[in-house]
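Replying to the earlier thread about multi-chain prediction with a worked example.

Input:
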Amino acid sequence: MSQIKAFQILSKLTGDEFSDFSQFIASPFFNRSKDLNKFFSAIKKYYPLFDSPNLEYEKLYKKLYPGRKFNEGTISNLLSDLGSLAERYLGYVHYEEGFFYKYNVLMELNDRAFDKLFVKSHKKFTEENDNDMDTTDQKSLYSYLLDNEMTIHKIRTNIDLDVSTRDLGAESLLVYFLVSFFDKDYDWHSKYYNANLLQDYNIVKDFFDKTDFAGIISGMRKNNVAESDKVEIHFVLHLALNSGGDDCYNNAVHALSLIRSLPEGTNVEQICNFYVAVLNVINYHMKSDDRDLKQLSFEIKKEMVDKGMTSERLGKLKEIEFITILDAAINVQELEWAKNFLENKIKAVEKSLQFDLYNFYKARILFDEKNYIECNEFLSKVNNEGFILKMDVKTLKMRNFYELDFIEAGFSAADALKQFILRTDILSPNRKEGFTNFVKFYKILLKKKTDMDKDVSIL
Amino acid sequence: MNKIKAFQILSTLTKDEFAAFGKFIISPYFNSSKELSKFFSVVKKYHPLFDNPNLDYQKIYKKLYPGKKFSEGTIRNLFSGLTALAEKYLGYVIYEDSSSFNYNVLLEMNHRDLRKPFLKHYVKSKNYENSIPDDIGLKSLYSHLLDSELSDFNVRRSNVNEPEMKSAESLLIYLLKFFFLEKSNFKCGKDNFNESLEYNIVGEFFERTDVEGLINIIQENNLNVGIKLRLEYFMDLAHENKNNNFLEHLHKALEIFRSGEFEMCDREKFMVYASIHNILNSNVKSSDMELKRFLFEFKKEMIEKGITSEMFGKMTAIDFITAIDAALNVREIEWARNFIESKKDSVEDEMKSDLYNFNMARVLFLEKKYEASNECLAKVRQESIFFKMDIKVHRMKNFYELNYLEAAFAQTDAFKQFLLRSDIVSEKRHKSYSNFLKFYLLLLKKKSGMEIDYPAIKKEIIECVSIRQKGWLASKADELK
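Result:
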């Protein structure tokens, strides 16, 4: 049954949405078919799974038309109509809460020359947009659309255009455009450039090549264009992304200082997104021996934790965030801070993950403190099945064996890991390569330790 | 009754829209009040005028609640409920036929991870966008939003095989089109009203961007759109009169426009015609009869092909006036008269009478029917500052031709006072009217027997850059020689 579009869509509705859909289907504005209403009444009790045997065509037909000869086409048609209505409903489910409802009302008021009401609604919607929690790009796009509608209104109501009429919209549109292009550039770097995907046509890169956008943004800042402070942050991050070494570091620090100087009252979500964006750029460039970037990455994460800007503000602390914060601290040997964070924040992550995460990171910290036996004890508590750090548990255990001179155990673990890597298909090619290399060099070091024939200079 | 907001809104609905509103109000999704549905069924028969005496509060109440004591508050509440629903309906009236509907459906499918329906709906929505007229009317912008959604979808599903650049291209195209239009509007504002901005973000963008280079790249990958952008680019260069190559750039633009190498919808054609008209207008000099003739023929071509603002409902006042300007500038008086008569009902009802009388007065003036011209001018309401000033100027010209010297002097003084008092006229317009007044007064003095230095005045008129009715003043100066 899950192949049926109607059920696929309906099963994705929340309980409230599903009862809202019952009103939707009963509304003559959307549906005049009594048969469809009857059909929906017959199937709605099987929400959300829609996997009951009672949903077989013949059974449904019998329920709807008792005593009549089964006709598959009738049920197919009803399901198809229900699918279309369910699809239509998706266009309505959040429509009135969203921007486009307001925008459509404004357009109609404008078209129908309700000028007073138009001006009043325009003012209200503009204020709502200004105070909204949307990101810079969305806000600017909506602002542009609202301004554009005002221009149409002014043109219609007054043949004597003034310059302020024409000025509306261009600034918002350019802000939207630049932020979108900076985002696209980041996407390209993170997803395609890394994968060595070359392309003939990259309009984003072409645009940046052919535009003095630094000059444009500087002009926007000087003239206090709305949201230009945020555009500047995107711009500096773009510079960091497209540079390496010291330049990357300096631009990341500059971006950070701009984020810190955002005015009070700036949307917290947006600030968090900026922090994450700086971290992403740092990760993009960070090499294992880059102490400065590692230190900066840790400082940012620490600042986010101190300011309550982690995912915990939305409920639970995300597992991946918990992991990256601890990794950053351990990478720069901030072991005391890591210990405190682990103790204080372990309860903030999803309950089912707490035990494994706690034991693994306890082990990691102990390893850096050279408490290898204790480290192994904590590692042995980790339930490897389905654990996101399964591979890291194995390698950490191997490192313990090495440090403890448990040579045999080291070789066995290395062979086991090698087999595992060969068998598994859950690792991405990059990670697979990383772990394979780890095993290769680990064994060389182990052999050397046992005075076997390898010359470590090749490492 | 037409002061009631609910009726104001409902009276603007077409028959079909009103019928849909009938379904809207009985739909539990939008309205759960049976009282309101009943109330609507009582008032709906009076659509669209809603001016029937039966719409009296007491009569409605009696019909809804027979035998019960009248309560004005109940009726007021019902009207208020009806207004709220009518207002709400405005957000739904064209929603399903709009790009925003497709976009919202796609957004929800993506958020709910409905993979197959998402991909199917994406294709359907893109086809819809491709089928609607392409102009500055948001097509590229919606295309960009749809493509961005697809990009998010692919990223979430790790479906990334090749870099997604379509959404970026759509957005850049939209930005360029909008900015070309904005730039042209700024130029018109600058030319006509001497307006300028301390900070002009559009100008700055063009100064700092290799627009031609970007268009070349777009054209290599998207021929149809690239050619259209190139057309806009040449129009822009012509408008700017870049390197004094106005005509060369204009002809390049026209060559592309008339080549038929690409598809163009009516709205796009209208926008191009309107832009070329603006460009010609910006560059035409009062003595350049050849270009004036070119401008008129171009405007005539637009009207004959039906490519005017009338295509989208009513003809705009600007479209109406500029057609007459173009005709009268080359003394196509008969054409102008026919145009006014045949198109007078095409403009907004509110402006119909003023536009007719004002422009007919201009025609009558050129036909030397000065009394009749003044009669037409007297019928024009004077609320618009620009109508107001031009009415005065034309009346003064009529007085002059009729030898009503006393009336002319009085009108001159009144106009002078008006200009001194008025602060809503731009500097450039103020100057051009002041210069008109200055020379008009001198000519009037000469006509009433006073001595003036004719050669000096004629020279000054010819050399004056900012002046209304320059041609007429110069010809009158010649007559008085």
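The radius of gyration of chain A is 30 Å.

Feel free to reuse this layout for your own posts.
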